[in-house]
């Protein structure tokens, strides 16, 4: 893109750039910076579930557990079969000291996608019947 055709601050191109930059900030352990970028993306596209899921992850990484919980729940209202969102919400409940709610969502995640981390957190047996240890979800 040339200097004369830069996207405007509220253009769809800018939102894509901000979303990608937020992914990079979260990967670089700057969750607050990621949240700041995602706020404008979500304000312009409140229906964007991917942006909400990324913002929920950023809230979780910043130890802002209540906002993370609300975002994960919103994602699950829209995508009830999203195993990752169930798993991440369970981790949020776990960090908030709510083990019963965490267990329910760990089990839903494992039922939806029986990958080892989800099975271990749900305390289910693995596919070959072998037990698994607790997963490190981050």
Automatic annotation (TrEMBL):
Q: Which domain of life is it from?
A: Bacteria
Query: What Pfam families does UniProt report for this protein, alphabetically?
Result: TPR_19 (PF14559), TPR_2 (PF07719)
Q: Does the keyword 4Fe-4S apply?
A: no
Protein name, please? Tetratricopeptide repeat protein
Matching InterPro entries, A to Z?
A: TPR-like_helical_dom_sf (IPR011990), TPR_2 (IPR013105), TPR_rpt (IPR019734)
- Provide the residue intervals of the TPR repeats: 83-116
Supply the alphabetized keyword list.
Repeat, TPR repeat
* Keyword Repeat in annotation: yes
